[in-house]
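Protocol step 4 of 5: obtain the predicted structure for the target chain.
Materials: sequence only (see below). No template structures provided, no constraints applied. The aim of this step is simply to have a reference model before the mutagenesis design in step 5. Sequence pasted as it appears in the construct record:
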Amino acid sequence: MKYPVLAALAVAVASLHAADAPKSIVDAPTPPPAKTVKPLTPDQVKQAWTMLGFSIASQSPMPQVNSQLELTDEEIELFLAGVRQAMRGEKPKFNPAELGEGADAMFQERVNAKAGKWGKQNDEFLAKIDADKSVTKTASGLRYKILVPGSAVKPTKESTVKCRYEGKLADGKVFDSTKTRNNEPTEFPLSGVIPAWTEGVQLIGVGGKIVLYCPSAIAYGDQGQGPIPGKSVLEFEVELVEISKAK
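Step 4 output (structure tokens):
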């Protein structure tokens, strides 16, 4: 997103460079016509402010806080009340020091309860996968099922590949998917992703599809990442679209 101050600065810099350049009537290019920007409608103005809040919040720890504490709608509203106060430069209408250890204990109890429930759900999910005879388990703990083998040529761990994919948690919640990005494949080096992907994508060729069941030890570990809680077993369906570079 381009902010007005930055845009104005860019225009000012461009103007200074233009002033320093030698003038030539013959060589001077015809300036392009000024671009007309259509004003936003009242509804779009509201949407723009919502978009700004969404963009900032989604890149902050807020989604992870919600994932770890499983906030109710009422708790989210109370949380946002604190955010509004901070944005306005206001102070809470209570003494934070009086909450101290009590608040810490409450939050820790919520995290521990979520971890216990989540751990049980992950164990049950993995046990169900292990009971499926169509699933293969490797020495690393990766479980996989090849849906379409693809071409005979397969990537190596040094390859850069393009893939379409969808990732789910043990409860079936989708946390990432190329379907939300016009199903455009994502390009990445196989050496730069989680170990489960590095190992699993090498098992199929171009045009191939595979389902990967990834224990946390070869995924995002005890800490998790973003919307992925710590110690999560992950399920990915991956389509290998292209091996764009290989050594």
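Step 4 remarks: The helical segments are 4-20, 42-58, 62-69, 73-87, 100-130, 195-200. The beta strands are 136-137, 143-148, 160-168, 174-177, 186-189, 209-214, 234-245.
Proceed to step 5.
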